[in-house]
Amino acid sequence: MKKKIIALLFIGNLFLDVLHALPNAAQDPRVQKVYVQFQNHLLWIENGDWTPCAKTFFDVFARVEEEGLWGENYLPLREELMSLPLNSPETQKEADAAFTLLALTYIAEMKGKRLDPHAVDKTIYEKPEPVNEVDVLIQHLSPPHHCGWAASLAPDHEEYQSLKKLLAHYRQKKSEGDWHLLPTDTKLEMGDKGDLVKTLKKQLIEREVLAAEAEEGDTFDKTVEDSIKLYQHLHGLESDGKLGAETLKTLNRPIDERINSIIVSLERHRWLPSPLPPRYIQVNIPGFFLKAVGENDVFFMPIITGKEYRKTPVFDAPLTDIIFNPSWHVPVSIAVRDKLPKLKRNPNALMGKGYLFYTASGERISPVSINWENYSGGHFPIKIVQSPGKANALGKIRFTLDNPFSIYMHGTPDTQLFRKTKRALSSGCIRVEDPAKLAEFVLNDPEKWPLEKIKKESDGLNTKKVKLSEPLPVFVTYFTVFKKGEHWHIVPDEYEQDRRILNALEKTKNEEEPEDEEE
Asked: Are 382 and 357 in contact (CB under 8 A)?
């Protein structure tokens, strides 16, 4: 009898330890609002057991890592709650409140509220849709509802679901063991032979750009060269088919880096509207492309984005109008940084390219009559305007985006730049390879605006503004992991945004408290 009492006391103390380890959810104002709405009734526990709705959420919490959320923030508390004996009103009340807090956390994180993007990186102005997790829970919670709506919290984007599968795929590959690595000074090309080529083949097979049956042999042949070209293409590298320093560095990156890139991309999808509108344009800064999505068609187009020191910001904006044969009013920052040094060396440096010069009062003046040495970044009262024409920096068509950054999409006379793989070359605006095709999509009126008319309208010097009857949503995004056609691309983190976001996400992990040392 004595042994039984001691055992019961031990179990009781252990239970109290678990109960006291639960978060003090009752003090969270969000939790309080939920219970006020439901007159302080239990929401998840009924007749001494978890409700079917709660059990549905327990299953959801078990799979949070599939969504790119941190298991540390859910799984330990989930296990503690599932192990609690719900045999007293006090236990039930505390456990129910802790569960409510966990549900609210999940709703908030699945709606993109894990962090403030702009606080992490000042060039990110994209904001998740305003969602109040308390309102969402109150709206849907009506016991004994089975809470099937919990699965609908994920973004309604096809690519989001595909990214989840890609994440699972790479986690499976990680569980199978480490990837093969090559020495950091390795250089290989067509015709080379030896053990390093054997290792390279294994790497290419692991990265799924070389068929497994091609592993035999130690020769760098045409098959190896083609697989390297494909790998380079999928990773935003110059496709020369050689194993140089940059390709080697990318091949040698640990699989955890790929997993982290996917997790960040999943997070970024949660910042976008869900569902997305039926017609929109998505600009992908590090991918150097835009995607035009219509009701029945999708096409991709190469673009040029901002240099490292003139980064294209991440933002959403409506496209409101198109300007044929635009003038370019050179921003002061570009005038001072790009044009002024040239003009100081030679006042005629911009001759023949359609540039006009004006005083602050609007009087036109000759660049030769100006003493450019008198001007600097702190004092530049000259307005520079480039007239419409083939040399105009905006090309022949400009797409106006309603935003406070003076960023828009436009053509360019420097079409040869689209042959480059890395195209962070602009002063922040987005240059498009085929502005006429994009205009056809934007205007979306085959009868009034066929492609032939668009080309004719832009073939001249007359400026014409066409306002859209309905603004077209444009999402300027930053995805280093994305799908084009059948292939996944994982490209360089051009502005190091992913790195900063990952660091911020890491800080949201619940750290386990160190156990007290025994005395």
From this structure: yes
